[in-house]
Amino acid sequence: MTFVETQFPNDIALGCVGGPTFSTDIVETFGGFEQRNINWSASRGEWHVGQAVKTRTQLATLIAFFRARRGRAIGFRFKDWSDFSASNNIIGVAVAAQQDFQLVKSYTSGGVTVDRTITKPVSGTVHVFRDSVEQMSGWTVNTATGVVHFTSGLTGGEVISATFEFDVPVRFDTDQLEITHETYEIGGWLNIPIVELRV
User: Fold this and answer.
1) What whole-number distance in Å separates Cα of residue 59 and Cα of residue 187?
2) What DSSP character marks residue 88?
3) Is 61 left (phi over 0), alpha (psi -120 to 50) or beta?
């Protein structure tokens, strides 16, 4: 078992610090010019959640969650409160007889659009549209993969879009607890790094 469909405690995730990260190599010439090499085609999220632990109950919950995941060994679901939903996002234009569509979220800035694959939609939040008309039946969604499946093939040319909330597949990036105790009721964890998993 390397991943469980268990969500990290939302009240602790709400106070996290972090976001998308890229990997770029920069080579500087003697003249001060730069050559930038993009190593990753897609970002990878990184967060620190230690700042969010405010009560002894939260600390106990976090310790139990960490032990159950065995440190870095087992991945889990994480809600990034800064980016957890998509509204009427196009996920594909059907070809004849097509039944499956992968959920994606699109980000557009300065005429550039980047699609992010969504593999962990939240159960009960997914709404699917066919040519802007919501489909109340005739489809299912796999909340472990993010694939929308139509029970019958489409004719082709239909624009398929979706509105949904989603989690991020992550793991702890440490195998060691570093707990502090300010008082009996209040404790903390100095460093709780979490990193996104590519699936």
Assistant:
1) 7
2) E
3) alpha
Percentage with pLDDT > 90 across the chain: 73
In contact, 102 and 161? CB cutoff 8 Å? no
33 CB neighbour count, 10 Å cutoff? 8
Residues 69-106: tens digit of each pLDDT: 999 999 999 999 999 999 999 999 999 999 999 999 99
Please check the confidence at residue 7 and state whether its pLDDT lies above 70: yes
Which of 190, 144, 140, 196 has the alpha carbon at shortest distance from 173? 196
Token pair 């010019």 is found at 33
Tell me: the pLDDT tens digits for 159-169? 999 999 999 99
User: Residue 28, Cβ neighbours under 10 Å: how many?
Assistant: 9
Assigned token pair, 171: 């793991």
Q: Give the C-alpha separation, 53 to 62, whole Å.
A: 8
